[in-house]
Amino acid sequence: MQLLIQTSAPDYPAWKAAFDAEGENIAGAGLQVLQIWRGEGNAVLVLFQVSNAARARDWLAKRAGFGDAMTAQFLETA
């Protein structure tokens, strides 16, 4: 299972530094970063491998509680 999130990062270097600082929490949520893309405008997409869906959902809820504006989708290979 994978998790794809999309967020906005007007200052990508600052966003990336904050994202990297979250590395221990990301790993603790059972997530492994597979790819990061910069899209049109300020869009940033991150694809994770999910080893524990419940912990990943908890991490997403915590991020939303901090006011992080993002969309998230859990994906399965079809």
What does this structure look like?
- The protein is an alpha+beta fold and 78 residues long.
- Strands 2-3-1-4 form a four-stranded antiparallel beta sheet.
- A hairpin with a 4-residue loop joins strand 2 and strand 3.
- It is globular, with a radius of gyration of 12 Å.
Percentage of residues in strands: 35-45%
Taking Cα atoms only, what radius of gyration do you get, to the nearest Å?
12 Å
- Looking at the overall shape, the CATH architecture is 2-Layer Sandwich
Largest sheet, strands/sense/barrel: 4 strands, antiparallel
Question: Please, how many helices?
Answer: 3
Detail the poorly predicted runs.
none
Compact description:
The chain has 78 residues and is α+β, with helices and mostly antiparallel strands. Helix content is 37%, strand content 37%.
Write the layout of secondary structure elements.
Elements: E1 2-8, H1 12-21, H2 23-28, E2 31-38, E3 43-50, H3 53-65, E4 70-75
Antiparallel strand pairs: 1-3, 1-4, 2-3
Keywords:
78 residues; alpha+beta; Alpha-Beta Plaits; four-stranded antiparallel beta sheet; 3 helices
